Structure to design on (202 residues):
């Protein structure tokens, strides 16, 4: 076998093996993805994760109002999100358009148009998205252990404005809520706690 290998190597027939991306196990992806959700909703949340080809798929079905997405190893930092199921049409449409190669601004404009035309539904009573982040070096993909994690919160309130909410366009104090994209389908309240006081910090 060694002689065959050396012969092929000399003849230039040994092709380099392309490194495969390493994705955490399904159990680790589920364990870490649901950490972004409130504790009471973690056990029965639907979870999206990545297969060995890097494709985002449902890796656990859910039975409550929460949907969670595992960390993407291809992106910088550790980042998992959970959101109310009423946001799924909005999120899924964004994923579809991103796959098509659309830019952030193109995705914004397409979804804005579709919401206004009644093609794409947005929750009218508000719906929350939870984000948990950490430096990549503080995440162990083998065990799912995370340190120095940090929460922030987004509450979608379509077409809300400064006038309708009384919220400013930027935070004027640490942790103060503020409104982003006011007057659009993507209007949302941003709540970013000071890191040293963040509920998710460990």
């Amino acid at each position: 076998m060694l002689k065959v290998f050396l012969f092929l190597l000399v003849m230039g027939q040994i092709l380099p093996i392309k490194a495969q991306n390493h994705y955490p196990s399904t159990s680790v992806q589920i364990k870490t993805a649901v950490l972004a959700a409130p504790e009471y909703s973690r056990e029965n949340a639907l979870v999206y994760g990545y297969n060995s080809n890097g494709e985002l798929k449902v890796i656990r079905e859910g039975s409550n109002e929460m949907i969670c997405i595992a960390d993407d190893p291809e992106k910088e930092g550790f980042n998992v999100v959970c959101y109310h199921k009423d946001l799924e049409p909005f999120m899924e449409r964004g994923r579809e358009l991103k796959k098509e190669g659309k830019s952030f601004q193109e995705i914004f404009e397409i979804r804005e148009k579709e919401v206004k035309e009644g093609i794409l539904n947005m929750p009218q009573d508000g719906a929350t998205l939870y984000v948990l982040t950490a430096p990549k070096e503080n995440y162990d993909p083998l065990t799912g252990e995370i340190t120095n994690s940090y929460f922030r919160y987004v509450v979608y309130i379509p077409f809300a404005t400064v006038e309708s909410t009384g919220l400013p366009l930027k935070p004027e104090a640490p942790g103060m809520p503020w409104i982003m994209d006011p007057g659009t389908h993507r209007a949302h309240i941003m709540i970013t706690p000071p890191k040293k006081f963040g509920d998710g910090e460990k």
About this structure: Confidence is low (pLDDT under 50) at residues 1-20, 197-202. The chain is about 25% helix and 20% strand. The longest strand covers residues 127-134.
